[in-house]
Design a protein that fits this description.
Radius of gyration: 29 Å
Domain Ras-associating: 638-725
Shape: globular
CATH class of the domain at 224-488: Mainly Alpha
Strand order of the largest sheet: 1-2-3-5-4
Organism: Myiagra hebetior
Helix content: 40-55%
Structural class: alpha+beta
Distance between the termini: 71 Å
Pfam family, one: RasGEF
Domain Ras-GEF: 223-492
Number of strands: 15
Strand content: 5-15%
Domain N-terminal Ras-GEF: 56-187
CATH topology of the domain at 224-488: Son of Sevenless (SoS) protein, Chain S, domain 2
Length: 728
């Protein structure tokens, strides 16, 4: 089979990509070979005649909503077999269920044989029967794949409309019974929060009720594999409930707006659980002041073992949560405690940390996730013989049970990809047509999520109510509390003792997790002068930054933990929370050194707002979908992604913006203001500044071309600042 590009076909309200598919349908002996009695499959190529059939595949590239809905009925005829699944998974980005259902039933579902009441001929009857079959096929797929679209309490208008259509056109059909049962199911179900097993914050408690401080003895009583299994059980239950379209960049990036506080609840629930695990790790290590250094080290070792058990269970969500907690500032700075952790366990910890290395856009974790997405068991190839021996032993126990395992991913990877796609690709193309090529690209990510959700059905885990009750009953420390306790724990330690050499790999920066609320840096003491790490860098081992997300008790799903800065690049500054600026001995520099400007290529919480990319021509780079998507910190193909934060106000919350080589300051400024939910008309009152270093900035003239004017050798981090005359 060979494929050939057939160009484009343009119709009224739609543009199609055409591909010619050439398929060999027959191979027969030629005339001479037949005279000799030969068969086609037994002869060399020169004695055979091949017959080919060429078919045309039409895939809609862009169109109006009416054309996209109409294409649901004709996609199979055009050999675009995946179109229905792609549309159903992504249409919420540009239309509502009611709008799609009305078009499908009212415009295309009117099955009256004749508008004049005359008897229709045989051809029209056949076409109407075919149309009825096509509509039934689409509705069946909709109910199979996206039944949650019809959950609209208390009226359920879409379900009632669908039921009325089926009664009139397909009475007593299986479809009618199915819709009636679904309506009863929705009506009987109470409105449930999706947070199932997630920890509650102290602000949600009834008066007089208090959460318990973590009891080390009680925590130690749980076996490592039991903890990992229970964390996996909770993660599986929440991940299976994730509605894929909630992850779309245009949906998820709008969550911070006031009117969208209840948007994407299934994604928020997984983030809440992720943060609950992270906080639980920190509270068990720091929550008890009376612990000795060796006891605290044992708890760290236990969590590393639990992380390893999560790896065996292919639970990458809790695995990353535990690793992130151990890399947080308050835990990382426990130098003497880490020295008491055994060498073998430190090596195990390093290997687990390497899974989430940010090298090459987290290539290691992506490849591992896809490799194990459909495998029965984890593939544990350890570089350390001792760890490999232990891993294989535990894995063999899992195999002996004869039950396959699923895979729980770290959802942030997919949120990052979808927000990047939403930022880089236009919602509409020339003529105001919906860019469906963008939705095809998004579906590639959505399909991976669905595949992993299906794999989670393989898990056979039983809830342990004792552990779940303990887990939900933990009082989580705020960032300030954990840092204070961390300082107290190290106060009596000998600051001249070197931390293990292996710490260098431990402090590799992992991007900020699910940044969604304002970020702050608690006041930090001046770094103690101690021996340099490894005796070579010359920097204090206690100079790690304390920049992390505040655990906002009113919206815990947006909280996060930022890993410590590496000793090679310490942030020696404090944060003035009243003024919103970071100060140092050299003076005050607004919004410098924000940890969140140095995260991954694209941060889940910093995504674009839907529709923020105008429907203007962005140049040839985006005219038909870029082969290589624009990314942060690299100019390619005449475009790139920059991060823009507001000076002083929400200084560390940035928004990612796509710019091209045609964009000038007024346009970029307006789009940045829109992203930050500010009035774009006030663009003339602001100046755009690129952060070059702690003491250097690049201020752009009013009509400068941002793409060519920016410094491409430093981070693409920008600040919107009110002009001095406006402030005055």
């Amino acid at each position: 089979t060979t494929f050939q590009d057939g160009g484009e076909e343009v119709e009224d309200g739609a543009v199609y990509n055409v591909t010619l598919k050439k398929v060999q349908i027959q191979q027969a002996a030629n005339k001479g070979a037949r005279w000799l009695g030969g068969e086609g499959d037994q002869l060399p190529p020169e004695h055979t005649v091949r017959q080919y059939e060429t078919s045309k595949i039409r895939a809609i590239k862009a169109g109006t909503l009416e054309k996209l809905v109409e294409n649901l009925l004709t996609a199979f005829g055009d050999a675009d077999f995946s179109y229905i699944s792609i549309f159903l998974a992504t249409y919420r980005a540009f239309a509502s269920p009611r709008a799609v259902l009305e078009l499908l039933l009212d415009r295309f579902g009117n099955l009256e044989t004749s508008s004049n009441g005359e008897v229709a001929n045989l051809n029209s009857l056949e076409s109407e029967m075919a149309l009825r079959v096509e509509i039934a096929s689409v509705l069946r797929a909709w109910l199979d794949q996206c039944s949650e679209d019809f959950r609209e309490p208390p009226d359920y208008m879409c379900l009632l409309k669908l039921l009325d259509y089926l009664k009139n056109n397909m009475p007593n059909s299986d479809m009618e019974s199915r819709v009636q049962n679904l309506l009863k199911q929705f009506q009987n179900q109470e409105v449930e929060a999706v947070d199932g097993f997630c920890s509650t914050s102290s602000s949600d408690l009834v008066d007089g009720e208090e959460l318990e401080i973590s009891n080390p003895e009680e925590f130690s009583s749980f076996q490592d594999h039991v903890v990992a299994e229970q964390l996996t059980y909770m993660d599986v239950m929440l991940f299976r409930r994730v509605v894929p379209y909630h992850c779309l960049g245009s949906i998820w990036s709008q969550r911070d707006k006031k009117e969208n506080k209840n948007r994407a609840p299934t994604v928020r629930a997984t983030i809440t659980q992720f943060n609950a695990v992270t906080k639980c790790v920190i509270s068990t290590i720091l929550g008890t002041r009376e612990l000795k250094i060796q006891q605290r080290a044992k708890i760290i070792e236990k969590w590393i073992h639990i992380a390893h058990e999560c790896r065996i269970l292919k639970n990458f969500s809790s695995l990353r949560a535990i690793i992130s907690a151990l890399q947080s500032n308050s835990i990382y700075r426990l130098k003497t405690t880490w020295m008491c952790v055994s060498k073998d366990i430190l090596l195990m910890y390093e290997e687990l940390s390497e899974i989430f290395s940010d090298h090459d856009n987290y290539l290691t974790s992506r490849e591992l996730l896809m490799k194990e997405a459909t495998s029965k068991f984890a593939n544990l190839d350890s570089s350390e013989k001792e760890n490999q021996k232990k891993s294989q032993k535990r894995l063999q126990l899992q195999k002996n049970k004869g039950v396959m395992q699923g895979t729980v991913p770290y959802l942030g990877t997919f949120l990052t990809d979808l927000i990047m796609l939403d930022t880089a690709l236009q919602d509409y193309v020339e003529g105001g047509l919906i860019n469906f090529e963008k939705r095809r690209r998004e579906f590639e990510v959505i399909a991976q999520i669905k595949l992993l959700q299906s794999s989670c059905n393989s898990y056979c885990l039983i809830p342990d109510q004792k552990f779940i009750q303990w887990f939900r009953g933990q009082r989580h420390l705020t960032e300030e509390e954990s840092y204070k306790l961390s300082r107290e724990a190290e106060a009596a330690a000998d600051t001249n003792i070197l931390s293990p050499k292996s710490q260098k790999s431990m402090v590799k920066r992992i991007s900020t997790l699910f940044l969604g609320t304002d970020v702050f840096t608690p006041p930090k003491e001046q770094p103690a002068k101690s021996s340099p790490v490894g005796g070579s860098s010359g920097e204090s081992t206690d100079s790690a930054s304390v920049s992390s997300c505040e655990f906002n008790h009113s919206e815990t799903e947006d909280a996060c933990v930022t890993p410590a800065s590496s000793p090679e690049d310490p942030l020696k500054k404090g944060y003035d929370s009243d003024k919103g600026s970071i100060s140092s001995d050299k003076g005050s520099i607004s919004n410098k050194g924000s940890d969140n400007s140095k995260g991954s290529i694209f941060d889940p919480g910093s995504g674009s707002d839907s529709g923020s990319i105008p429907t203007r021509d962005l140049g040839s780079v985006l005219s038909s979908g870029p082969k290589e998507l624009p990314v942060y910190n690299r100019q390619s193909g005449g475009s790139c992604i920059i991060r823009v934060s507001m000076d002083r106000l929400h200084a560390s919350v940035y928004k990612s913006i796509l710019i091209t080589n045609q964009d000038r300051i007024p346009d970029v400024t307006q789009r940045a203001l829109l992203k930050h939910n500010l009035e774009p008309d006030a663009a003339e009152d602001y100046e755009l500044v690129q952060v070059i270093s702690e003491d250097k900035e690049l201020v752009f003239p009013r009509d400068a071309n941002v793409f060519y004017g920016m410094n491409s050798h430093v981070n693409f981090d920008f600040i919107l600042r009110k002009k001095a005359e406006v402030v005055g």
